[in-house]
Design a protein that fits this description.
Blueprint (H helix, E strand, L loop, with lengths): L14 H23 L3 H21 L1 H20 L6 H22 L9 H15 L9 H15 L1 H8 L3 H28 L3 H8 L2 H7 E2 L2 E2 L8 H21 L3 H18 L5 H4 L1 H12 L3 H19 L5 H8 L7 H19 L10 H8 L12 H34 L3 H20 L11 H22 L8
Antiparallel strand pairs: 1-2
């Protein structure tokens, strides 16, 4: 087991109490003075100034606390930004990650445990990170600023895999992460219901009204596509699919009837609000995950569930309806009748010769919004990738695409292998859920860029890390002969 204390910091556990007393005293004295001299913004900046150093120390000394903050911020950061907060919250996330990276290396110095990274997933992730850094010297790159801007969201968050793998070292912490994840999903679902039936808040409606291009994408057939707290409908729908997968797997593994019912209801809720997003790509992900679920966990109970699920699914796809959400859901399974899908196919066909003749691609950030921002006027800058795999192939070449596919394949294969190795029932379910999530995201990364936005850009690597963590924790609980942990 990894040590919980580091010699790099003071061994005293009273710093939290002392810090709280200092914050209270300084606030009571300083807030009235600042408010009277600077104005209403002053107290906010004053609180940030006195809390930030303590948060800095707290994250370094207690990395599990830092991981919790990091995951919570990843989930809610886009909602905070939607308020129009004039603050570089993305840079704040980068700073938080840098603190966690620094703390990780200091922990490794005093409590080294590199053996947990002796596995195929870690090796491919290291290759992926190095390849993305190599893109800085790609001769085809049109703008080094585009690389700097993009590397944070690609290789930067990838490093979080090592942080999660090292610090998530108890079943209690793993269980807490899953439970908090589901609580957040419930809140997100309720917020989506509010948007669907009671409309947007004023700040949300103003943002939509101010951007005609956004309106053309989100206002379909007289109905607004919903995003809940996330950046766009795609992020919202993919997150709801992920949450529903966790609920279904945990429901089948739950012992108490009330827990099964609660998880089942939450799964239904997440799938229902997913329809509000109007994201066709998301509609196929849950059935795809359930198909793999039925294969891996085949028994009488699962077989009955699978038969009824797919019968209901077929009826749902074929049933005549005037409901705009359900009608859009049905259209996802008739892609040839979808004009946007046909446009994407044409774009992908058009870019194939470029991919085939550029093995290392055109450079990170050369397409999409970053392409327009940093290298407008180039051949790739106006190309809409509309797919995580297509973006990887265009920007990183077919070599980069092969690396990404290898990482995904090895992670899913490892998840399947670990699922059959794990003895503990709870850890077995967590491993299965993460494997199904990864499979669903791998499918979803083709029709959309499913893992580039918060929070899935970070949670994707959390999911991969948990696949290895579950086996490690199981080995600690149920030691095997001649097995290193």
């Amino acid at each position: 087991m990894i040590g919980t204390k580091s010699n790099f910091f003071s061994e005293s556990e009273n710093w939290i109490k002392v810090s709280a007393i200092i914050v209270i005293l300084v606030s009571c004295i300083g807030l009235p003075i600042v408010a009277s001299t600077v104005g209403s913004v002053g107290p906010i900046l004053f609180l940030i100034a006195i809390i930030a150093p303590m948060a800095f120390f707290g994250i370094l000394k207690y990395p599990k606390f830092g991981i919790a903050i990091y995951l919570i911020m990843a989930y809610w950061i886009m909602f905070i930004m939607n308020f129009g907060v004039n603050f570089p919250l993305g840079t704040l996330m980068d700073a938080l990650l840098l603190l966690l990276i620094f703390g990780f290396f200091m922990e490794q110095k005093y409590h080294p445990n590199w053996k947990i990274f002796h596995n195929p997933i870690s090796i491919v992730i290291i290759l992926w990170i190095l390849y993305n850094f190599f893109q800085a010297v790609n001769p085809e790159i049109a703008s080094i600023l585009a690389w700097v801007y993009t590397i944070r969201a690609i290789a930067g968050v990838t490093i979080s895999y090592f942080i999660f793998t090292y610090h998530i070292n108890t079943v209690k912490m793993l269980r807490s992460i899953i439970n908090i994840w589901l609580v957040f999903s419930f809140i997100v679902a309720l917020y989506a219901i509010k948007q669907e039936f009671w409309g947007f808040f004023d700040f949300e409606q103003r943002a939509l009204d101010a951007d005609p291009r956004l309106q053309s994408l989100l206002f379909i057939d007289g109905h607004w596509r919903k995003s809940s707290i996330f950046a766009d409908p795609v992020s919202f729908s993919y997150n709801m699919v992920v949450s529903s997968i966790i609920c279904v797997v945990m429901a089948f593994g739950a012992r108490s009837k009330w827990r099964k019912i609660l998880l089942g209801l939450l799964a239904i809720l997440c799938l229902n609000v997913m329809l509000y997003s109007g994201t066709r790509a998301a509609y196929v992900l849950f059935p795809a995950a359930m198909f793999l679920f039925a294969i891996l966990k085949l028994n009488k109970q699962i077989l009955i569930f699978s038969v009824f699920f797919f019968m209901f699914f077929i009826v749902l796809v074929r049933f005549p309806t005037s409901n705009p959400n359900l009608s859009r859901f049905q259209s996802a399974f008739r892609p040839n009748n979808d004009a946007s899908y046909n446009v994407r196919k044409q774009n992908q066909k058009r870019i194939q010769p470029y991919i085939q003749t550029h093995p290392i691609g055109g450079g990170l950030g050369s397409t999409g919004a970053s392409g327009v921002r940093f290298s407008d006027g180039t051949y790739l800058s106006r190309f809409p990738p509309d797919s995580g795999y297509v973006r990887a192939a265009v920007e990183l070449g077919w070599i980069g695409l092969a690396l990404l596919c290898t990482l995904t394949f090895i992670a899913i294969k490892t998840g399947i292998d670990n699922y059959f190795k794990i003895i503990d029932a709870e850890l077995k379910n967590y491993c299965l859920a993460m494997t199904l999530i990864l499979f669903a995201l791998a499918v979803g990364n083709f029709p959309q860029e499913g893992i580039l936005q918060f929070p899935l850009n970070i949670y994707f690597y959390l999911v991969i890390a948990l696949i290895n963590i579950t086996l490690r924790l199981d080995i600690e609980k149920n030691p095997r002969p001649n097995t290193a942990t």
